[in-house]
Amino acid sequence: FGDRLERLGFSEGTSPTRLKYAALICAMRGFPRLRALAIPSYTVYGPGLYRDLARISNERPAGAGLRNLAISELDATDECVAQACRIEGLELLTLDGIDATRGIVDAILGGAAARSLTSISIRYCAYAPRATALRACDVLRLVQGCPRLSHLSWFCDEEFQKGTLLLWGVCREIARLLER
Asked: How far apart are CA 36 and CA 8, in angstroms?
């Protein structure tokens, strides 16, 4: 079974999954075809897990590492994203409800993954009322810095959209770049 497993994810229903750090590392080492991993939200791992995932993924032969990573860990920070974005060849990145700031843009652009990402989804994270809310100009910079990006999903609750500075010109430029 371990030699066939390509995706590992977790349901966030009424029985939240809690896996130990070591179990996720063992899965990464023990499932050589694992290409998609979803980090559950009900456990605190910290940047060390993402650093280890990147190291193990990058040690695999070219094209055999993680391609899809979803992070829902509630306490995941910009540093966790920075470590995760060290994964070479990462194509899909989902950030959902993590404790991030607009620093996630620098975290993504500073890693090897910026060259290979084709899809980024950011939901319920890095938004107002904080002074560090993710703004449209930050998203534009993200799109400009990821040359293969063709799909972007950025969701922020309507009540917090004022802090995102959704200027039409900036939003049109984001759409134009993605269409190109």
From this structure: 6
pLDDT, tens digit, 9 for 90 and up, residues 31-43:
999 999 998 887 7
The maximal CA–CA distance of the chain, rounded, in angstroms, is 51
Determine the 3-state secondary structure of 45 from DSSP: coil
Burial 108-117 (b: 16+ CB within 10 A, else e): bbebebbebb
Q: Residue 100 and residue 110: Cα distance in Å, rounded?
A: 16
* DSSP for residue 112: G
Cα 173 from Cα 67, distance rounded (Å):
27
CB 176 within 8 A of CB 142: no
So what's the pLDDT on residue 30? 93
Q: Percentage of the chain with pLDDT > 70? A: 87
Cα 123 to Cα 72: distance, rounded to the nearest angstrom: 10
Neighbouring CB atoms inside 10 A of 48's CB total 13
Q: What is the pLDDT of residues 118-175, one digit of tens each?
A: 999 998 887 766 778 888 888 999 999 999 999 999 887 676 666 666 777 888 888 8
Q: At 39, phi and psi to the nearest 5?
A: -85, 120
Contacts of residue 173, Cβ cutoff 8 Å, sequence gap at least 6: 140
What's the pTM?
A: 0.89
